[in-house]
């Protein structure tokens, strides 16, 4: 209550302050052009977005809130503390309300600094002309573009940075996403393994393994503001891909996988009619620090602010932030209807079921046969729960389950087909074929959209197509026993590859060429997707990795299947039809030359590469866009 006396005194002695803007209007909208704050902001929540000594500076509390109200959120708090966190908080407590912007800026300048906490790193297993690329002509290999490691100062003084540092180099997604991210890394690893960059891959897996040992799970990102939520638990998938490629089994990885699964079993389970399933349910129930203003407004305009903020955080944990999947009545006009933690999603349960298979196989390798039997039983139980809870025999697909309504969400999402990736589920392929044909999702030239019907402005909805969804749908189709779905997998691979290619070399509209985080499914023109809280980002880790894996997958497939049917859409490479897919824009990665044979989809083009100036190590990451704090 230290501010009350100051507030009363200000009305008596400084009447000109009364003319300053009020910090909050009657709808709970934060005005970011304040020059004076009269009192602390009331934020009705009690579970922060992070824990530890830095949490009251970077994840909740008056420093963060005031920075947003003054419009200084991009500068304060800064990248690094100048003094220990406890001393920063002591100094802030000496500031009084009403608080002038000049006084707050002086405090920020005195206690924080803007520094580079990442540095470019040379990957020791990076090869400018790896052998596998000799079979993909006219290419450049640029994984190193977004290879990063934490600076030595971060590793020596982790208590002074709002980061979770790791020892080994890693690959950042690109754009505003400037540290490691959890589920992005699965598709990055897929591409690294195609590139035979085993040392880099092993280092990344070791990084995640160490995080599990420290935290008990893998956080959303290396930024502490995102560390109380996870993301789709693909860590065992990463390990299994590496093991398949190298025949390497590591006992400490086995222990880390088990520890992570225990976290999900303890903290992310729900009961549905006698079956145990998994859902995204974070503990934090406060506005996100990275989008405080938008979250605050949404929450304060609802009847349950902390519940809304918890569901927003849970949606971020899903990776689908945001989508109609998480809204009441699938209505995205009002984000305050979000209730992610009350929805049981198909894809999360498929991922964890596959994790149990991987754990069983790892246990077999180490001759822990009793443990392997336990994991196979868990797989069987979860598989049964998936089928009983999500399957709609009339529709012919699996659908998310809404706990409050006890109903399935019958809208189309690519995840509706993901259970085909599980052993034993291929017997439903014929029904899924009918569903996919009737859904309308196969009617788009650039790939499978993230949702249908098209009634949303969120980025994980129509018309956007995302590499993770496209890759998993293709894997689902390939795992079926249905020739139509297998052919559709090849067609979808061709469509997405062409879309990415055109996004580089034939950019649409005023946006320059690049490899995007998401695309418009309505054409193969390569137009980037839109919607969401920020402008579309270019880079992009999972797009590069997924495309490279698709090209390599279907390159091998051609030798096995090219004589089976002339109707199969062929995306493989041959001598007569070749095109190059090269990622050379502000990011790291891409490799590739592609051929799309069917109907002359892509004509051979000679493209000028961008200037060598993009190689500059000064281009660490893209700057945050001006709209990052908007909804």
TrEMBL record:
Identify the keywords attached in UniProt to this record, alphabetized.
Glycosidase, Hydrolase, Membrane, Signal, Transmembrane, Transmembrane helix
The leader peptide range reads 1-20
For this protein, the parts annotated as crossing the membrane are: 581-602
The EC number(s) attached to this protein equal: 3.2.1.28
User: Has UniProt tagged this entry with the keyword Transmembrane helix?
Assistant: yes
The lineage's top-level taxon is Eukaryota
GO biological process assignments = trehalose catabolic process
From the UniProt record, list the reaction(s) this protein catalyses: alpha,alpha-trehalose + H2O = alpha-D-glucose + beta-D-glucose
InterPro entries named among the record's database cross-references: 6-hairpin_glycosidase_sf, 6hp_glycosidase-like_sf, Glyco_hydro_37, Glyco_hydro_37_CS
Q: Which Pfam families match?
A: Trehalase
Give the Gene Ontology MF terms in alphabetical order.
Answer: alpha,alpha-trehalase activity
Report the sequence similarity comment from the record: Belongs to the glycosyl hydrolase 37 family.
What is this protein identified as? Answer: Trehalase
Species of origin: Caenorhabditis latens
């Amino acid at each position: 209550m230290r501010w009350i006396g100051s507030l009363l005194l200000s009305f008596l002695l400084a009447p000109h302050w009364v003319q300053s803007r009020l910090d909050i209007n009657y709808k709970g909208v934060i005005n970011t052009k304040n020059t004076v704050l009269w009192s602390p902001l009331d934020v009705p929540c009690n579970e922060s977005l992070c824990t530890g000594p830095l949490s009251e500076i970077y994840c909740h509390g008056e420093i963060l809130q005031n920075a947003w109200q003054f419009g200084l959120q991009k500068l304060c708090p800064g990248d690094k503390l100048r003094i220990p966190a406890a001393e920063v908080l002591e100094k802030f407590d000496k500031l009084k309300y009403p608080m002038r912007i000049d006084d707050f800026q002086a405090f920020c300048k005195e206690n924080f600094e803007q520094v580079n906490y990442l540095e470019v790193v040379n990957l020791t297993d990076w090869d400018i002309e790896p052998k596998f690329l000799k079979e993909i002509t006219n290419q450049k290999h640029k994984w190193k573009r977004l290879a990063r490691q934490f600076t030595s100062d971060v590793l020596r003084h982790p208590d002074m940075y709002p980061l979770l540092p790791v020892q080994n180099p890693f690959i950042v997604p690109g754009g505003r996403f400037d540290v490691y991210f959890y589920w992005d890394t699965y598709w990055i690893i897929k591409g690294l393994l195609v590139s035979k960059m085993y040392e880099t891959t092993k280092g990344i897996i070791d990084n995640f393994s160490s995080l599990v040992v420290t935290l008990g799970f893998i956080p959303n990102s290396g930024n502490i503001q995102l560390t109380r939520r996870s993301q789709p638990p693909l860590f065992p998938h990463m390990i299994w891909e590496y093991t398949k490629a190298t025949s390497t089994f590591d006992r400490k990885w086995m222990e880390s996988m088990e520890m992570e699964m225990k976290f999900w079993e303890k903290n992310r389970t729900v009961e549905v009619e006698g079956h145990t399933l998994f859902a995204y349910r974070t503990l934090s129930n406060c506005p996100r620090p990275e989008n405080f203003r938008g979250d605050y407004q949404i929450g304060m305009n609802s009847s349950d602010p902390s519940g809304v903020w918890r569901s927003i955080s849970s949606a971020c944990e899903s990776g689908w932030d945001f989508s109609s999947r998480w809204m009441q009545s699938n209505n995205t006009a009002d984000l305050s209807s979000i209730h992610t933690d009350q929805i049981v999603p198909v894809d999360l349960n498929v991922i964890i079921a596959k994790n149990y298979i991987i754990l069983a196989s790892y246990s077999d390798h180490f001759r822990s046969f009793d443990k392997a039997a336990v994991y196979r039983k868990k797989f069987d139980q979860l598989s049964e729960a998936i089928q009983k809870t999500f399957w709609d025999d009339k529709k012919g697909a699996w659908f998310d389950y809404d706990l409050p309504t006890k109903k399935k969400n019958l809208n189309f999402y690519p995840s509706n087909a993901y259970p085909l990736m599980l052993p034993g589920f291929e017997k439903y392929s014929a029904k899924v074929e009918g569903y996919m044909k009737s859904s309308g999702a196969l009617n788009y030239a650039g790939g499978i959209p993230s949702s249908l019907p098209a009634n949303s402005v969120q980025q994980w909805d129509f018309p956007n197509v995302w590499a993770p969804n496209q890759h998993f749908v293709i894997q689902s189709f390939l795992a079926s026993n249905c020739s139509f779905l297998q052919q559709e997998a090849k067609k979808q691979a061709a469509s997405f590859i062409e879309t990415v290619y055109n996004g580089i070399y034939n950019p649409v509209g005023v946006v320059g060429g690049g490899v995007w985080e998401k695309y418009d499914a309505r054409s193969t023109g390569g137009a980037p997707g839109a919607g969401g809280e920020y402008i579309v980002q270019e880079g992009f880790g999972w797009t590069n990795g997924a495309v490279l894996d698709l090209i390599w997958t279907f390159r091998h497939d051609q030798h096995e299947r090219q004589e089976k049917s002339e109707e199969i859409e062929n995306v493989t490479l041959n001598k007569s039809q070749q095109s190059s897919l090269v990622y050379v824009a502000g990011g790291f990665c891409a490799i590739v030359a592609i051929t799309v044979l069917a109907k002359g989809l892509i004509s051979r083009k000679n493209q000028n590469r961008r200037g060598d100036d993009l190689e500059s190590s000064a281009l660490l990451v893209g700057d945050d866009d001006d709209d990052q704090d908007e909804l």
